[in-house]
Amino acid sequence: MSRDSPPRSPPRSPPIVLGSSSPQRAHILRTVLGIENFKVVPSHCPEDLDPLQYESAKEYALATCNAKLDCLLQRQASFETPSVVVVADTVVADCDGRVYGKPHDSKTQYEMLAHFIKGPFVEIHTALRVVVVVCKNSVDDITSHCETTRLVFDPTITPHVLRDYINTGEGINAAGGFCIQAGGGALVKSVEGDYYNVVGLPANALFNALLAVKDFLPSRNRRE
Q1: Within a domain: residue 30?
Q2: Coiled-coil intervals in this record (predicted)?
Q3: Can you state the angle between helices 106-118 and 159-167, rounded to 10 degrees?
């Protein structure tokens, strides 16, 4: 390099695309991982897979997450390339592996939460896919992972207290019928694993995946 040549700037990290409209997932990216510059591009994927067709709640979460990613990749015009694409799906399952979706009405919500309170535990599975979309029809996989967090609900919660919680309107549109990051957290006695996984994104697993992207890009550039 000559003395008059301008110094080369380091390669710019590709932008992050969050394939979810969940405000909780965006909040985790922004406040927990400190990532301000990302674009939200919902996958608009119909979540119509049948959990009974899968051997486990984990497999169901991963299948739904993969379907979301496929839908998102069909809409590459919505984001620039290269981009780091983050997609997740969170599933709530009881100790027998039965999957619980959004209750949508207060009766179903009460039945769900009363069942969780009886115990012995509930598992939250969040499937995570992180890929680098290099260009059209060129996608490199960084991670395909399913994180599990185990919750134990407080068995001393009375039906009256449970109804008071449901009457707040919280959790009616959340898988499992509760929001641990809000009032629903008072129903939970213990958390074993990544708390943020319950909220919607496994923060540590995503952090390590994004570190792997930084290592992956220079090596890919060298190969090319």
Answers
A1: yes
A2: none
A3: 140
| Most confident option among 40-44, 45-49, 187-191 | 187-191
Instruction: Tell me, yes or no, whether 32 lies in a domain.
Output: yes
DSSP for 129-172, please give it.
Answer: EEEEEEETTEEEEEEEEEEEEEEEE-TT--HHHHHHHHHTTTTT
Query: How many domains in the chain?
Result: 1
Written as six digits, the tokens of 46 are 């119909």
CB 186 within 8 A of CB 126: no
89 is catalytic: yes
CA 199 to chain centroid: 8
Rounded Cα distance between 148 and 45, Å, is 23
pTM: 0.88
Cβ–Cβ < 8 Å for 184, 168: no
Please state, rounded to an integer, the average pLDDT across all residues of the chain. 89
Catalytic residue among 4, 70, 89, 164: 89
Does residue 160 lie within any of the structural domains? yes
Q: One-letter amino acid identity for 34?
A: G
CATH number, domain containing residue 71:
3.90.950.10
Would 70 be classed as within a structural domain? yes
CB 184 within 8 A of CB 151: no
Where does the pLDDT of residue 76 fall: very low under 50, low under 70, confident under 90, or very high at 90 and above?
confident
